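Title: Comparing notes on inverse folding

I've been comparing how different people in this forum approach sequence design from structure. To keep things fair, I'm posting one structure and asking everyone to reply with a full sequence. Here's the target:
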């Protein structure tokens, strides 16, 4: 797969998330987003701990799919699902949060970079996937957390 195809999948997933947000009832959307990133729904310290756990579980399952031969064909479902949830979360933030700064500086840029990081890791060979993934996603996770705290949770 080429870089243009990966970008196309990222855009398609993001737009699919926007469409799904408009089609789902609000309680279903809130429940789905709470599973993905609880910081959108609540700004408590528990939500940050839960987000850390959710990120680690998602990354561990991604690596399981990436490193096992029979599951490798499904590894692109992870960045695409991240892009869909990014689109849903974007619409939720735009509709329910008064601060455009939170969306434009924190949510959208880090969401796109994180989805792109998963696309990049989908094409890295098996041996380097764990090391590259820990480095890339660890740095992004720390920056995401810091910017989230700076913008006032």
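Reply #1:
Here's my take.
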């Amino acid at each position: 797969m080429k870089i243009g195809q990966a970008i196309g999948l990222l855009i398609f997933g993001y737009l699919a998330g926007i469409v799904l947000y408009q089609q789902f009832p609000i309680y279903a959307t809130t429940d789905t987003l709470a599973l993905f990133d609880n910081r959108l729904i609540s700004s408590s310290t528990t939500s940050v701990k839960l987000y850390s756990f959710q990120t680690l579980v998602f990354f561990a399952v991604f690596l399981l799919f990436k490193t096992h031969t029979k599951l490798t064909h499904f590894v692109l479902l992870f960045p695409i699902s991240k892009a869909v949830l990014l689109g849903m979360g974007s619409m939720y933030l735009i509709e329910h949060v008064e601060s455009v700064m939170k969306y434009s500086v924190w949510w959208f840029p880090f969401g796109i970079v994180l989805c792109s990081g998963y696309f990049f890791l989908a094409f890295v060979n098996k041996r380097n996937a764990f090391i590259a993934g820990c480095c890339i996603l660890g740095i992004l996770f720390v920056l995401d957390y810091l910017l989230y705290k700076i913008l006032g949770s």
